[in-house]
Design a protein that fits this description.
With 147 residues, the protein is mainly alpha-helical. It is built from five helices and two strands. A hairpin with an 8-residue loop joins strand 1 and strand 2. Helix 2 crosses helix 3.
Length: 147
Amino acid sequence: MRRGDAPADEGPPYVGALLRQCLEHVRARIEADLRSAGFTDLQPFHLPVFNFPPPDGVRPSDLARRIRMSRQATNHIIGQLEALGYLERRSARKGERRLIYLTPRSWGMVKVVHATLLEIQAEWASDIGADRFDGFMTALRRFASRG
């Protein structure tokens, strides 16, 4: 196993494993901060529904595609989140399809997630330096835009 500061050409772990490890760290922090803020009724499988951008005014089928779940599984989770007060389905006019909207409770949850992410970014920037972190973020945005 290689040290965290070893040159990139020394072998595993490769980029996929490193990105996954970072994502696991971020998710664990988000879950802990949500629990600390009183959102103890959310389960880890609920969180992908709120991935950026949060689902405010989207069709359930579009959300299912975005979070890579079947429509049936997504509708089940939406139903759970509705019962918990995080989402609501409504239509603008009679006869239109119902869309998913965030509730004030879920906007509060999203605010905690955003604060956690900003905190992690500040910690990482402090750890490696602001210039290196800016370069890291620029590279991530570039790679993410490739789809």
